[in-house]
Amino acid sequence: MENIENKKNTWGGARANSGGRREGAGRKKLPPEKKVKPVKAISFKISKELYSKAENIAEENNLSIGQYAKKILLENINKN
């Protein structure tokens, strides 16, 4: 039986000495053009009446309420 102290790396992988950091191991890095840009979420509360009005307008424009809210926000930000 081999002494554990003589082994270089005894953890990970299906075979002894198969785990750990190795050249070429792990997930490959994405090229910069394929990296996902960080995003932030916005949430807010509105009355049932206001929600109902916004929901109707969104449906008339074939948008989800989230898409409609984003559209309104972007239109107003771009005005300034």
Return the average pLDDT rounded to an integer: 82
> How would a textbook summarize the main sheet?
none
What low-confidence regions span 5 or more consecutive residues with pLDDT below 50? none
Strand content: under 5%
Write down the Rg.
27 Å
> Based on helices, strands and strand pairing, what is the structural class?
mainly alpha
**Total number of beta strands:** 0
SS field, number of helical segments: 2
* Helix and strand run: HH
Proportion in helices: 25-40%
Query: Outline, from the CA principal axes?
Result: elongated
Quote the distance from N terminus to C terminus: 75 Å
List keywords for this structure.
80 residues; 2 helices; Unclassified
Question: Could you characterize the architecture of this molecule?
Answer:
- By secondary structure, the protein is an all-alpha fold.
- The chain has a domain at 47-80.
- The chain contains 2 helices and no strands.
- The chain has helices at residues 48-60, 65-79.
- Helix 1 (48-60) crosses helix 2 (65-79).
- The longest helix has 15 residues, at 65-79.
- It comes from Brachyspira pilosicoli WesB.
- Residues 1-37 are annotated as: Disordered.
- This is Unclassified.
Q: What secondary-structure arrangement, pairings included, does this model have?
A:
Blueprint: H1 48-60, H2 65-79
